[in-house]
Amino acid sequence: MKILMVIVDGMADRDVNGTTPLKSARTPNLDRLAEMGINGIMDTIGPGVRPGSDTAHLSILGYNPFEYYTGRGPIEACGAGIEVRPGDIAFRVNFGTVDGKGSVFDKRVVDRRAGRIQEKEELVRAINQKVKIDGVDFILGNASGHRAALVFRGEGLSDRITDSDPKNEGDRVGRVMALDQSAEHTAKIVNEFIEKSHQVLENHPLNAERERMGLPKANVLLLRGVGKAVHVPKFHERYGLKMAVIAGTTLIKGIGRLIGADVIENERFTGSKNTDLGLKVETALKSLETHDLVLLHIKAPDEFGHDGDFDGKREFIERVDSELEPIVNLDFSEVCLTVLSDHTTPVTARDHTADPVPVMIVCEGVRRDDVREFNEYRVYRGGLCRIKGLDLMNILLDLTGKSKKFGA
Amino acid sequence: MKILMVIVDGMADRDVNGTTPLKSARTPNLDRLAEMGINGIMDTIGPGVRPGSDTAHLSILGYNPFEYYTGRGPIEACGAGIEVRPGDIAFRVNFGTVDGKGSVFDKRVVDRRAGRIQEKEELVRAINQKVKIDGVDFILGNASGHRAALVFRGEGLSDRITDSDPKNEGDRVGRVMALDQSAEHTAKIVNEFIEKSHQVLENHPLNAERERMGLPKANVLLLRGVGKAVHVPKFHERYGLKMAVIAGTTLIKGIGRLIGADVIENERFTGSKNTDLGLKVETALKSLETHDLVLLHIKAPDEFGHDGDFDGKREFIERVDSELEPIVNLDFSEVCLTVLSDHTTPVTARDHTADPVPVMIVCEGVRRDDVREFNEYRVYRGGLCRIKGLDLMNILLDLTGKSKKFGA
What we know:
eight-stranded mixed sheet, 32% helix, alpha/beta, homodimer
């Protein structure tokens, strides 16, 4: 029996005049599935704990985020295809533009995204080849747009350091500072890297060309979200299951790679409103033939939440519902389906909140409840009551006959 | 956004012929609030764990009682206005009357409350001034009626000792015993204190006067509820919120002082049936102007529970409901209200039980459920399902936009 996990990012909401985007959306397929299954609400991490998408997904997949989440850097580095090892420190990176004289730390950031540069493989390669730092290795990994990820590998590295990204344009590049004594060596190394990579970028022919074309030079790496990688057991080792991730978002792909899942790439999976939902569903169903657990991630409802766009969110949820139609016709004696939101992103709060999310499970044998509508106002009366994200995998393993008995 | 927490002590009950005092009470205001909010049941500490009011309140305020509760002594000492420090050992104290010859430990307790003595500041002052114990400091703090609190401060004190209060009149004053070897030094000190304070009291002019008037002498301190104080982080440090406590009960005021809240005193807040409920509600609403979180504590329903008085409890709950009327008209986009009981005090059990308590939360954005009556038989069907006391603060912080995101 296979497992299909459909995670609709930020789909859940709070009350707006007695309704929510999900409640007011026409969702015949989700409602039909709710009717066929068991429903409830879920605290992805814990009651009152506001999840990020990264910590929420770790928890849903059975990885306690308080143990395995060490900041965004290591996950972005995995997402950028770097094989991160325990003890590495990793950063999210922007290619940016600085202007001024002297050291990189005397210069001001004039564009945090270097004119949203797209093609920068050459620059990444040049830094990886030309920058040398005594006593430490580094890997710069390319990512989409102006983004990259950076990993340092060596003895005694610490993530107790500040960002170099000043966040505000017009400010100077931040000199990385140690937050405690044990991190002084690391701060020195990272600052040396920022200076040396700036020299390589400043003198690179691609930037001379950009200057001629009137484009901002991509002449600085801005570092943030540092985290020290810990050992994360692979999903197949932990559960004996081969897992696939269908996602457009780097962060979720990063989570997938972090736990050793196969990330199915397609440029039409954009992680945004213009994604090819139909193709994602089709790919998910096809992946069920080759994998034991397929995670289908749909990002856009969260974006509408962040934008405060009630109608946009409702309409996109209706699109999601409509594209989920093939899933209604699955053979639930062969597939165990769960549909849920990773966290609540209210259009009123425009950010994640800790309100519990709706969750349903459909599979043969599950105790069907009398919930007939999949929304925040109905599912809490369902047969699952209120569960925790960290328990979901165990529940799914049990329903699919994959769990071990504890005792006799 | 402010938080108003209305805690009705021991309001919840068990089934008596299909009803409870709360269910049978006419409570239009509580019912209206339930309708406007989200409802559920709550295990203040944990399912099946019978809470005291002290441990329940700690838990509700986000302080794990298994970590921060070390006996009644330290809380009563805070309530008596003593600044308790980690490592101190503290006791609840009764002024009592002993009769007999020789050492205090040879004498019998003839009145555990010294004729319910009221004015005893002079005696407290005399003991603080005249009793000296080598190698240790002590503070005796006055409290209401025959009550006081006592703190010892010094190296290596232990709370692994027995009470001196024999509980039964006619018994001898108990010699404090060490429960393990590490407490032998402490037991010796405490016994020395009991003897010396007895001498001071016995010879005090106030007791000579009481004897002349035919009143029992207040000539002994009876110690119980010992606990060793631990470091308790202040509420405003922990949550960044300025907190006020409106309560008549010393124990709840003690909890407030323990966590650094402002305790709003008024002699009309009696912590009993004759309290001025209207003034308490008015004071709570006024305190919302100066504080971020206001805890309004109402004690009497618990007393009716302990007395086994079903009708008295029902009638008092109706009075509470009627006095809560101004709260119904609050602007819930500015105030997040929670109403709950700290524990169940069934009129049948005449003591606290572990049955979960009703809880409601009213504020803008909360997912309103279809609970229309606030009682033990309705709220469990509400949108909160079943939560834990220790999670309540996080839920309130999230609903009022005060919590931090964990992850990205």
